[in-house]
Design goal:
Blueprint (H helix, E strand, L loop, with lengths): L6 E4 L3 H12 L5 E5 L14 E2 L7 H15 L1 H5 L10 E5 L4 H13 L5 E3 L1 H7 L10 E5 L3 E2 L2 H14 L3 E4 L3 E7 L2 E7 L2 E4 L3 E3 L5 H6 L8 E10 L11 E4 L4 E6 L2 E10 L9 H14 L8 E11 L6 E5 L2 E8 L9 H14 L37
Parallel strand pairs: 1-2, 1-12, 2-8, 4-14, 12-19
Antiparallel strand pairs: 3-7, 4-6, 5-6, 9-10, 10-11, 13-16, 13-17, 14-15, 15-16, 18-19
Helix pairs in contact: 1-6, 1-9
Length: 390
């Protein structure tokens, strides 16, 4: 392995790949990406694969998503790779318990120019007769959301980055960060030491462990979410939108000839996690309640992925005050794939120019959690809805 680089990125998920590309596009090409597995072998490859504007719960999240959405619409022209985007739309369903929350999001979205339509239970039933609306109070519909291919995004970014000189080392595990007098000196890997003055922690679920190498507590809690895919299921038309039940924190959408569904938000100490059989059974019961015809579906496959969440559902982005040269690009939770373009661009601007120009990153800096014990992040359970998409 080459013994030095201007920047070392730890993690080749969608955020790490985007960061590498945006650095190279800005002229910073002496970049090394180290990935202990393969590109996208972590949480980025275990997603529900939706590009969403309806998923944003506040104006800050919406501004990130709107920027990234616009970039994705130009992705093939910019990167030379199709992301296989299918604009299927997004429907949110709310029982009385979560109705006001959904309506607040709808008002906010409309104020920002995001097309959002409020639906009555009768309208939902007319459009999607397979949905049980007996306990539904209100719904919303956004036509611009859709499914896409995260693997094409990751490989598109890293391929272009490599064409510009970035190096990628797969199957190489970062094991430590050397710091002297408060400054980064390099990264220790299982294939040797790499001298560098800048390290980007894009470790996703492993970001907390990476921070602890240098005594930094990254305020993230990993949360497990299980996804199931059925066998071919023609009873639900293949042109149906993504549908989320906000109260149950369950969703489904067409996936090829079958149906993909997801549910669950359980804090976990593990960054790699086995399939959650208990959650599978809960999910099946929830699915049959909301879409009774799914009782006839057969299961094809399933997996449990990990989402790195923060207390406020916003990423941890920017420098670490205690360690000069360590840059955080993590805590994207359920929105890493949605926001990969802006995630990479902001960090590239920060490294290249000393500050981010596209938007103010101060709301995302790690200092916002000062004075809050890391254990308080366990409160994430109460705001877990927004981990479902990554």
């Amino acid at each position: 392995m080459q013994a030095a680089a201007d920047v070392v990125i730890i993690g080749a998920g969608v955020v790490g790949c985007s960061t590498a590309y945006h650095l190279a596009r800005a002229g910073i090409t002496d970049v090394l990406v180290v990935e202990m597995g393969q590109v996208g072998s972590g949480s980025s490859g275990q997603s529900a694969s939706m590009l969403s504007l309806q998923f944003c719960a506040d104006e800050l999240s919406a501004s990130l998503a709107q920027h990234s959405y616009a970039r994705y619409m130009q992705f093939e022209e910019e990167i030379g790779v199709s992301i296989d985007f299918k604009r299927i739309g997004w429907v949110s369903l709310a029982t009385q318990e979560s109705a006001e929350h959904l309506l607040r999001i709808a008002r906010m979205s409309r104020s920002l120019g995001i097309t959002t339509e409020v639906l009555t239970p009768e309208e939902i039933q007319h459009r999607y007769p397979e949905i049980n609306t007996a306990d539904i109070a209100v719904g919303t519909w956004g036509p611009d959301d859709g499914s896409f291919d995260p693997h094409m995004i990751m490989w598109g970014y890293i391929r272009r980055a490599r064409e510009m000189g970035v190096r990628l080392r797969q199957g190489v595990r970062a094991m430590g960060i050397r710091v002297r007098n408060g400054r980064v000196e390099g990264v220790q890997t299982d294939e040797g030491f790499v001298a560098t003055e800048v390290v980007v922690n894009a470790g996703g679920p492993w970001a907390v462990e990476i921070g602890r190498w240098v005594g930094v507590e990254v305020p993230i809690v990993n949360s497990a979410r299980t996804i199931l895919v059925t066998g071919p299921f023609p009873d639900i038309p293949s042109d149906r939108p993504f549908v989320e039940d906000m109260t149950a924190e369950w969703y489904f959408r067409p996936e090829g000839p079958g149906i993909l569904m997801g549910m669950g938000s359980s804090p976990t100490d593990r960054a790699d996690i086995s399939f959650d059989v208990e959650m599978r059974d809960v999910m099946i019961d929830t699915a049959v309640h909301r879409v009774p015809v799914l009782e006839k579906a057969s299961l094809l496959t399933g997996w449990t992925g990990v989402r790195p969440l923060t207390l406020d559902d916003h990423p941890v982005l920017g420098p670490v005050p205690a360690v000069e040269g360590l840059i955080l690009n993590c805590g994207w939770g359920g929105t890493g794939i949605i926001n990969a373009p802006i995630a990479g661009q902001l960090v590239a601007e920060l490294i290249g120019d000393g500050k981010a120009a596209t938007m103010d990153i101060s709301p995302f800096r790690v200092e916002r959690f000062e004075g809050k014990p890391v254990g308080a992040v366990e409160d994430l359970r109460v705001c877990a809805r927004h981990d479902m998409m990554h």
